[in-house]
Amino acid sequence: MKYDITLERIANCYYNLGLERARLRDLSGAAELLKKALHFDKYQREARNLLGLIFFEMGEVADALVQWVISMNLLPEDNPADYFLEQIQRKPAILRICSDNVKRYNQALDYAQHNNEDLAVFQLNQVIGDSPNYVKAHILLSLLYMRRSEWVKAGKSLYLVLKIDRNNPKALVLMDYVKKKTGRAEVEQSRLRNVFSHRKMMDDDVMMPQEVKQISPWAVSALLLLGVVIALFVFYLLMLPAGIRRANSKNNQEMISYTEKLDAANQKMGDLSAANAGLQKEYDEMKEKLDRYENQNASFMAQYQSLVGINNALSTGDLTQAAQLYTALDQSAITDESLVSMLSSIKSQMEGSVYLRLQELGSTAWNAGRLEEALQDYTWSVKIRREAENLFLLARIQQTMGNTTEANQNFDSVVGEFPSSPYAERARQARGY
Amino acid sequence: MINFEDEIKRFKPSLDVDQLEDAILKVDLTDMNDLMTQLMEEALKKGNDPS
C-alpha cells in the first residue's frame, strides 16, 4: 500500500515546517504544525518529541511529559524522549516545583474566574517568579492587568510572552490592544511612515555648522569677570542661605541638646531637693524623739533622786526633809513601773504613819513651847495627809500664834470637809459660831 | 474591543502532573494511517459481503 508512505511524507513535511517555526521561536505555530504531523503519522518520533519540548518551554510540563511518555511507548528504541524523561526524573525537585506551579496557576485561574482579581494577580506573580516561561500564566496576568487598566504592566507581561513565543496569537492581539491604549501604536506607525517615506530632504533638515568666531582678549576678561560675578551671585543667593540654614539648624540642634541637658539637671536637682526635704523631716522627727527621750530621762532621774531622797530621809528619821521632798514631788508625772512601785511604798509610809508622827512631833513641840516648830510639823502633816485632827491642831496653833485669818480658814475647812468628825464641833466653838 | 470576562472564562486549567496517567490514557492516538486502514477494512468487508 502506497498511502502509508504518502502519509509519512506529509507528516514529515509538517514536521519540517514545525521545526522551522520552532527555530524562529514561533512556538504556537510550531505546535500546531507538529500536531498535524502526528495526525498523519503518530509514529513520527521527532515531531512528538519536539512537541513535548515546546510544551516544556511554554511551562506546560505535564503536557510535555505526556508526549514523551507516549513517544517512549510507541518507539522505545533509541528514543531521545528517554533522555528528557530521565533528566526530569533525576531531579524530582524540578518536577515538584512545576507541579506546585501548575496547582497555583489553576488556583489563580479559579480566583480570576470568580472575581478575586487581587488574589489571582498575587498568585500569578508567584507562579511567574518560579516559572518565568509559563506562557499561560503571563497571558492571564496581562488580562487581569488590562481589566484593571494597568496597561504598562500588562504590556510588560505580554512582551515576555512574545519573547518566549514570538507569534502567540492571543498575546499579539492583546499587545495590539495595549499599544492602542498606551499610544504606543501611533508612535510605531509614525516611525514606520518616516522610515518608508519618500520625502526629499529639505534645507531645514540639514545641520549647518556654526561659524567659529574669534574673541578678543578684552571680551575674554569681561566674560571671566561676568562669570565671577555670576558665581558670587549664585553663592550669595543660593549657597550662602543654605549654609546659614545649615548652621542655624546645627545651632538649634545644640540648643535643643543643651536644653535637654538643663531639663535633666533641673529634674535631678528637684529630685535631690525632695530627697533633702525628706531627710530633713526625718532628721527633725528623730531629733524631736531624741529630745523627748532626753527629757524623759532627765525627768526620770529627778523623780528617782526625789524618791531616793525621801527614803534616805525616812531612814535617817529626818521627817521634815522627807515631808518637803514628798510634797514637792509631782506624783502624776511618775509613769515608770519601777518608780511607781517605789512611790507606792513611800506613799504608804508617808500617808500611813509619817503624817501622824509629824502631828505628834508638833504636839510635843507645842507642849514644850516651841510654837514655830509645832506650826511647821502640823503644816507638813496636813500637806502629807489632810485629816480633821491635824487640820484642827494647825488651826489652833495658828489661832494661838495670832494668825487668825489662816486659823479661821482652817477651822472652816474642818467643819466643811469633815462635818461628822468630833473636831467639827470643836472647830465651830473655836471659831465662835 | 476585548471582553475581559469572556477571555478569562476561555482559559482552561493546566494539566497537573498528578493527573499524568489519566491524561496519557485519554490521548487519542488515532492517525490518518489508522483511519485509512479502517476505511479499507470496511470497504473490503463491503466488497466481500454477498448482500
Q: Secondary-structure map with pairings?
A:
The complex is a heterodimer of chains A (433) and B (51).
Chain A: H1 3-23, H2 27-40, H3 45-57, H4 61-74, H5 80-90, H6 92-113, H7 117-130, H8 135-147, H9 151-164, H10 169-182, H11 184-196, H12 217-316, H13 319-328, H14 337-367, H15 371-384, H16 388-400, H17 404-417, H18 422-431
Helix pairs in contact in A: 1-2, 1-3, 2-3, 3-4, 4-5, 6-7, 7-8, 8-9, 8-10, 9-10, 12-13, 12-14, 13-14, 13-15, 14-15, 15-16, 16-17, 16-18, 17-18
Chain B: H1 4-10, H2 20-26, H3 32-48
Entry keywords:
heterodimer, A: Serine Threonine Protein Phosphatase 5, Tetratricopeptide repeat, Serine Threonine Protein Phosphatase 5, Tetratricopeptide repeat, B: mainly alpha, elongated, TPR repeat (chain A), Tetratricopeptide (TPR) repeat protein (chain A)
Work out the strand percent of chain A.
under 5%
Mean pLDDT across every amino acid position of chain B: 86
**CATH class wording of the domain at 334-431 in chain A:** Mainly Alpha
Number of strands of chain B: 0
Under the CATH scheme, which architecture of the domain at 334-431 in chain A would be assigned? Alpha Horseshoe
Uncertain runs of chain B are none
Mean pLDDT of chain A: 89
Report the end-to-end length of chain A measured between terminal Cα atoms.
185 Å
Largest sheet of chain A: none
Largest sheet data of chain B = none
- In DSSP terms (H or I, runs of 4 or more residues), the helix count of chain A works out at 18
Oligomer: heterodimer
Q: Please name the fourth-level CATH homologous superfamily of the domain at 334-431 in chain A.
A: Tetratricopeptide repeat domain
The helix content of chain A, as a percent range, equals over 70%
Element-by-element helix/strand order of chain B: HHH
Which protein chains are joined by the largest interface, and how many residues does each one contribute? A-B, 38 and 25 residues
Low-confidence stretches of chain A: none
Distance between the termini of chain B: 60 Å
- The fraction of residues in strands of chain B falls at under 5%
